[in-house]
Specification:
alpha/beta, TIM Barrel, eight-stranded parallel barrel, 13 helices, 42% helix
């Protein structure tokens, strides 16, 4: 495993990490979850990504149970949670968002579910138009000062709002955001490569990116459409299908198939190749992997070696194939 600093911070995360979105508490049972976390740990992964909204908190409960069962040393791994959506079907006003109340309540709930005394990373899962940015920053600072959170950041926030949060924090001597968790893959590049570009040097921002395989599109398994297998085929994933496949001119399925064809021509499986492409970006602190089985996880871990094997011409072929 390779390890990278989280932006300008001193925290070193495994270049490949493991997340529970759409799997733990839904697609994956506890026994299988234990095998996945054990395999990840055995291969050097030290960051496990979670959120209050994943399976309405059940994903964090499973993760907490598994880590306790495996008796992983607390100083050897990092866990995260995210706050915004809440952990119930129809949250009341104080059960969602980024108010001081929900930020603090959700942190306490995540600590209990994950069975830890502190969160290494705590993300604001989306922007909250109903809460002043300063209130959220102050709430995060409170949790940092209490020792319940070590580092905090954002997920899918616009560049201007991240800058505003950092400016408020520094003006008031509060803990500033150090990490953003955006989607990043060969089909979805603009935010990481263009919008956030000034923030890497100005704020020392790190990124822990999600969906390196575009929810499976870049594996080629949806070549004939969305059927019964994979996360896009889950009964409540209609919104995800629309988000991932895109509309009209985006033609993401077609672009993904072109990528898969070029990968085959280069003699490599498309999934680890797509993950390896993400690793080549120096502003990516960690690539979050999702998996429903250990064989899938171990295959995707081969991306570490693959990232340094191809020449620039080959990477360029892949980028051209996946371009709009």
């Amino acid at each position: 495993m390779h390890y990278r600093r989280l932006g300008a911070s001193g925290l070193q995360l495994s270049a490949l990490s493991f997340g529970t979105w759409m799997t733990f508490g839904r697609q994956v049972g506890r026994g299988q979850a234990r095998d996945l976390v054990a395999a990840a740990w055995d291969h050097g992964i030290n960051f496990f990504d979670n959120a209050e909204a994943y399976a309405q908190g059940e994903a964090e409960r499973v993760m907490g149970d598994v880590i306790a069962d495996l008796r992983l040393p607390r100083d050897g791994y990092c866990v995260s949670s995210k706050v915004f959506f809440g952990d119930v079907d129809e949250p009341r006003p104080t059960q969602r968002g980024l108010s001081r109340k929900h930020v603090v309540d959700a942190c306490h709930a995540a600590l209990k579910r994950l069975r830890v005394d502190y969160l290494d990373l705590y993300y604001c899962h989306r922007p909250d138009p109903d809460t002043p940015v300063g209130e959220t920053v102050a709430a995060m600072d409170l949790l940092v000062r209490q020792g319940k959170v070590l580092y905090w950041g954002t997920s899918e926030w616009p560049e201007a709002l991240i800058r505003e949060a950092a400016r408020f924090a520094r003006a008031n001597h509060l803990a500033a955001p150090v990490v953003e968790q955006p989607q990043y893959n060969l089909l979805h590049r603009e935010r990481v490569e263009l919008e956030y570009a000034p923030l890497y040097s100005e704020l020392g921002l790190g990124t822990t990116i999600w969906s390196p395989l575009a929810s499976g599109l870049l594996t080629g398994k949806y070549a004939d459409g969305v059927h019964r297998e994979g996360r896009l085929a889950q009964p409540d994933a209609g919104w995800l299908q629309r988000l991932v496949v895109g509309q009209g001119e985006e033609r993401r399925l077609e672009r993904a198939q072109r990528f898969v064809a070029v990968a085959a021509g280069l003699g490599h499986k498309p999934a680890p190749l797509a993950i390896a492409w993400c690793l080549r970006n120096p502003h990516v602190s960690s690539v979050i992997l999702g998996a429903s089985g250990t064989a899938q996880l171990i295959e995707n871990l081969s991306a570490l070696e693959l990232a340094g094997q191809l020449d620039e011409s080959s990477w360029r072929q892949l980028e051209v194939a996946a371009a709009p």
